[in-house]
Amino acid sequence: xxxxxxxxxxxxxxxxxxxxxxxxxxxxxxxxxxxxxxxxxxxxxxxxxxxxxxxxxxxxxxxxxxxxxxxxxxxxxxxxxxxxxxxxxxxxxxxxxxxxxxxxxxxxxxxxxxxxxxxxxxxxxxxxxxxxxxxxxxxxxxxxxxxxxxxxxxxxxxxxxxxxxxxxxxxxxxxxxxxxxxxxxxxxxxxx
Length: 192
Hints:
about 70% helix; mainly alpha; 8 helices
């Protein structure tokens, strides 16, 4: 088991030192917001989820056993909050599918207006592909590719076996590649 770099701050916060928990908030607030925003795509809702994450973590701190790293525990709380927000949103409104535009075959030269447009369309297509993914696949790929976490860390956060994480990331990459193929004019068997 690896040493948790936050252990001292967690222990001080458990002992009632408010500034220690404030330091933990400062350390992870941006990372959590970036993650939750990627999943929810609504800045106000993401901020609410992150704020609630820290509130829940603060209240549950006496029950934190330290079996996982503090940030792993915190990410798990944030992901559960994001999942709940998505479920509430789905109950309020019917899901709307976003389909990226299908255009341009050859990739234009870098720095041209055409390449800038294509780049923007690729980003929109990636966002649409992420949004279309089931939550488990989206979460796994965001934690890996955007947050840069290891497969082991993702398995801890998502509370699933390592093989499941690998499978989810593979399936997410395949789904994103399928959405990008027409845009980039990639052959069907081309893998990233």
